[in-house]
Design goal:
Pfam families: Patatin. This is Patatin. InterPro entries: Acyl_Trfase/lysoPLipase, NTE, PNPLA_dom. One of its GO terms (molecular function) is hydrolase activity. The protein is of the alpha/beta class. About 40% of the residues lie in helices and about 15% in strands. Strands 1, 2, 5, 6, 7, 8, 9 and 10 form an 8-stranded mixed beta sheet that branches. The protein has a two-stranded antiparallel sheet with strand order 3-4. Helix 1 links the parallel strand 1 and strand 2. The termini are close together.
C-alpha cells in the first residue's frame, strides 16, 4: 500500500512538521509521495532529499536565512527571495525534482492566471521559493516569465496532488483554529485574517486525509516565531508521541 504525505504551509509553525515526521518515522511510517505548500514545501523537499528531521532542524537553527532576504525596490512587495537560491542549493545541490529520493510535489499560485501550479519535474529550488512568497511581504517570484506567490493563497493542503497516486494519505496541518483573545495589532489582524481565509478553503481537504495530525498547541505561536524552532519541533514530536497507540493501529491497518 502506498502512503502519501501532505504538509501544509504555516510560516514558522511549519517547523512542527519536523517533530511530527520524527514521531511518524519512529512508528515505522514510510512515504511514497510528498506534497507541500510554502513551509511544507521546504520541509518536504529536504526530507525527500534524504535529510532526517533532526538534521533539517539543525539547518534551520544554524543558517542565518535573514541574510539572504533583501529589500524589494518595487511596489509588489517589501522583500525579495531570489538571493536565497544559492543558499538552498547548498542543501539541495542537484536542484532537480528527479534527484530526490521520494517524489515531491510543490504548489504555488500563478498570480497572472489565478490558478494553482504544481511543480514536480525539472528545477527544484525556485519553485520552493515561489511557494513561500507570502503576498504583500515578498515580491512575486518569477519563473519562465510567470509571477508566482504562496501556494496557500489557493491551496494550503494539496491533498489532491497525491490523491490519485497513493492508497492512504497522512496530512500534517500546522494551523489549528482556536478562538483567540481580541487582536491588538496590525500584525495580529493580518495574520488572523490570513489564517481565516486559508482555513475556509482547507476544511474539505483536511477531511480527505485518512490520518490528520494537527498539534493544537501550535495555536500559541505565530507564523513569524522562527527563533522558537526547537519549541515548535518539540510540540510536533510530543503530540505525535501522545497518539502512538492510534498511529500503531493505523499502521497495522495499512500495511
Amino acid at each position: 500500500m502506498k502512503i502519501g504525505l501532505v504538509l501544509s504551509g504555516g510560516g514558522a509553525r511549519g517547523i512542527a512538521h519536523l517533530g511530527v515526521l520524527k514521531g511518524l518515522l519512529e512508528q515505522g511510517f514510510a512515504f511514497d509521495q510528498i506534497a507541500g505548500t510554502s513551509a511544507g514545501a521546504i520541509v518536504g523537499a529536504l526530507f525527500a532529499n534524504g535529510y532526517t528531521p533532526d538534521e533539517i532542524l539543525k539547518i534551520i537553527e544554524t543558517t542565518p536565512f535573514y541574510r539572504h532576504i533583501r529589500p524589494a525596490f518595487t511596489r509588489m512587495g517589501l522583500l525579495r527571495l531570489d538571493k536565497a537560491e544559492d543558499l538552498y542549493r547548498t542543501y539541495l545541490p542537484h536542484d532537480r525534482f528527479e534527484a530526490l529520493q521520494i517524489p515531491m510535489h510543490v504548489v504555488a499560485t500563478d498570480l497572472n492566471e489565478g490558478v494553482l501550479t504544481v511543480f514536480e519535474t525539472g528545477e527544484l529550488v525556485r519553485p520552493i521559493l515561489a511557494s513561500c512568497c507570502l503576498p504583500g511581504i515578498f515580491e512575486p517570484y518569477l519563473i519562465n516569465k510567470r509571477q508566482y506567490v504562496d501556494g496557500a493563497v489557493l491551496n494550503n493542503m494539496p491533498v489532491e496532488v497525491v490523491e490519485p497516486k497513493v492508497d492512504f494519505i497522512v496530512g500534517v496541518h500546522c494551523n489549528p483554529f482556536t478562538t483567540q483573545k481580541p487582536i491588538t495589532s496590525v500584525k495580529g489582524v493580518l495574520e488572523r485574517s490570513l489564517i481565516l481565509a486559508v482555513r475556509s478553503k482547507t476544511k474539505e481537504r483536511l477531511a480527505k486525509c485518512n490520518l490528520l495530525i494537527e498539534p493544537p498547541e501550535l495555536s500559541r505561536f505565530d507564523v513569524f516565531d522562527w527563533r522558537r524552532a526547537r519549541d515548535l519541533f518539540r510540540i510536533g514530536y510530543q503530540h505525535t508521541q501522545s497518539i502512538k497507540s492510534e498511529l500503531s493501529k493505523t499502521l497495522d491497518s495499512v500495511l
